[in-house]
Amino acid sequence: MASVRFDHVVKRFGSLTVLHDLAFEVQDGEFLVLVGPSGCGKSTALRLLAGLEEVTAGEIYIGERRVTHLPPKDRDIAMVFQSYALYPHMTVYDNLAFGLKLRGTPRAEIARRVEAVAATLGLKDLLQRKPRQLSGGQRQRVALGRAIVREPRVFLMDEPLSNLDANLRVQTRAELLRLHQRLRTTVVYVTHDQVEAMTMGQRIAVLNAGRLQQLAPPQVLYDHPANRFVAGFIGSPAMNFLEAELTADERGALWVVNGALRLQLPRERSPHVETPRERAVVVGIRPEDLTWLPDGEALPGTTAPARVEVVEYLGAELLAHLRLGEHTVIARLPGESAVRPQAVGTVAFNTAKLHLFDPESERALT
Ligand SMILES: Nc1ncnc2c1ncn2[C@@H]1O[C@H](COP(=O)(O)OP(=O)(O)OP(=O)(O)O)[C@@H](O)[C@H]1O
Ligand SMILES: [Mg+2]
Question: Does residue 44 line the site of ligand 1, with CB under 6 A?
């Protein structure tokens, strides 16, 4: 096992800078997820760590060792890709054993490791089959097993579940977590799926356009996003954003105002940065921090008149699209809520959960 460190890594392809000054550390034994939209540089970061690409500037460390210019085979890592290719003419056993044979591992040691991995991944009864005789999920497990038998210091995984159907993905997700709890090997796991990131990562590094936005445990990302990008990327449906004015009244209380919407900001949500008395802000509120009051019992400072546009019923919960002046916000409500399309009522904000962002820099102000 080993820690991993990116030390101010820059990667350019010609004139295109794909990673800007990437600096972060993965702790020994940690399951770290690298998440971000398509094209943000996740695979490139992983390929640099694996040694499949050369850095333009900066250094990469695995444990105490600087590996920046070491070839892949000397880095003691194993990588699982989205498109894993098993050898079609070999049995599962031989697929698992192949890498070890190449390295000249003694036969008895190979047998011991393959048996152990097959037991861990539920492949014991499949060892004599060929890949074409396996389901997609079983093949996926063989690909994973091939990485595990090598007993590397770090696992790198690039969207390893994206070829699986939805059910199998959820199942394999849990299997991977159980496996990590047992092996305690450092994992760097890449995905563009924020649900996968939230459910799997001990900590999550959010990347956008080649820049690290925030690195934190899932709950910190969710409750205290560092900027508007992270706030909008983590969580589904996404956080609602409204443009507003932040003003102080004569008693010093802070309000966010946009037309009929007037919310009083609780003291603990006051901006932590020095702000002028009046300024433009972007207000963020998550769908579950809104409630619907059909009879319009309004509380000053926390509610606004609204009209229901559309209701998406999901069973345990429903998503109500609410028209609020010029804006539409989405509220996540219990499935049995009495909300009908076109109904007029009141939307209540849990103001203790309001987020404020700077419209220019997009940084969090709360
Ligand atoms: N060999 C290359 N030459 C030139 N540009 C490249 C090369 N490899 C990647 N890029 C560019 O670098 C950027 C980041 O690519 P990368 O594959 O790291 O994205 P990603 O975050 O893994 O995206 P996805 O979620 O779609 O897999 C993209 O704009 C891509 O076009
Ligand atoms: Mg990729």
Answer: yes
- Tokens (6 digits) for 358: 């700077």
Exposed/middle/buried for 255, CB within 10 Å: 0-12, 13-18, 19+?
middle
Cβ(15) – ligand 1 distance below 6 Å = no
In ligand 1, the atom with minimum distance to the C-alpha of 210 is 14
Is the CB–ligand 1 distance for residue 43 below 6 Å? yes
pLDDT band at 178 (very low <50, low <70, confident <90, very high): confident
Residue-wise pLDDT for 79-99, tens only, equals 888 777 899 999 999 999 998
Q: What is the CATH number of domain 240-357?
A: 2.40.50.140
The CATH code of domain 4-233 reads 3.40.50.300
Q: Does the pTM of the predicted model rise above 0.85? A: yes
The residue written with tokens 């010609």 in the block is 14
φ/ψ of 330, rounded to 5, equals -110, 130
**Ion ligand 2 residues within 5 Å by Cβ:** 43
Q: How confident is the model at residue 273 (pLDDT cuts 50, 70, 90)?
A: low
Please give the distance, rounded to the nearest whole angstrom, from the Cα atom of residue 19 to the centre of ligand 2. 13
Residue spans of the domains in the chain: they are 4-233, 240-357
